[in-house]
Amino acid sequence: MKKLLLLLILAAFSVTMVHAQNEDSDSCIYCGNCDNPEYPGGIKALLEDIDDNLKYPKKAIKKNISGKVIIQCVISKDGALSDVNVIRKVHPLLDAEAVRVVSSLHKRWKPGTQCGKAAAVIYTIPVLFRLKDGKPVRLFSSKKNNKK
């Protein structure tokens, strides 16, 4: 079940190459030689870092609010993360926490490339908020302290 959920999460990730601003960009529009940016340690590490740093808002727990917030950001040519925005909202409390946790990912990404050159990429990240019996569920946490 956990593997199926992980596959569904991975399918939810999407990337879009931002048009390169160089003179020979016309020759590379359809080159097919594009690579997506990579988080240090891969998607599993990204999901773990999000889950480990996520602080489920107490008011949202009390109101039994859960769901999947979809975040869009830009991974620049140098691997820096910027322009973090919510593109699918759930509730203002969860939306704000999703922006906070994604914005706090300070590790440098391996930048995406277009025709062999580093390129800025728009990246989409799902942030899951799940409750079970009134308590937050950590699906991807690297910390093995889910049991209290």
Helix and strand layout, with pairings?
Layout: H1 2-12, E1 14-17, E2 34-35, H2 42-53, H3 58-62, E3 67-75, E4 81-88, H4 92-103, E5 112-114, E6 117-119, E7 121-129, E8 131-132, E9 135-136
Antiparallel strand pairs: 1-7, 2-5, 3-4, 3-7, 5-6, 8-9
Overview of this structure, please?
The chain has 148 residues and is of the alpha+beta class. The chain has a single domain (2-15, 33-136), classed as Fusion Protein Consisting Of Minor Coat Protein, Glycine Rich Linker, Tola, And A His Tag, Chain: A, Domain 2 (2-Layer Sandwich). 27% of the residues lie in helices and 28% in strands. It has a four-stranded antiparallel β-sheet. A three-stranded antiparallel β-sheet has the order 2-5-6, with no helix packed on it. A two-stranded antiparallel ribbon has the order 8-9. A hairpin with a 2-residue loop joins β8 (131-132) and β9 (135-136). Mean pLDDT is 83; it is low at 19-30.
What are the defining features of this structure?
single chain; 148 residues; alpha+beta; Fusion Protein Consisting Of Minor Coat Protein, Glycine Rich Linker, Tola, And A His Tag, Chain: A, Domain 2; four-stranded antiparallel sheet; 9 strands; 27% helix
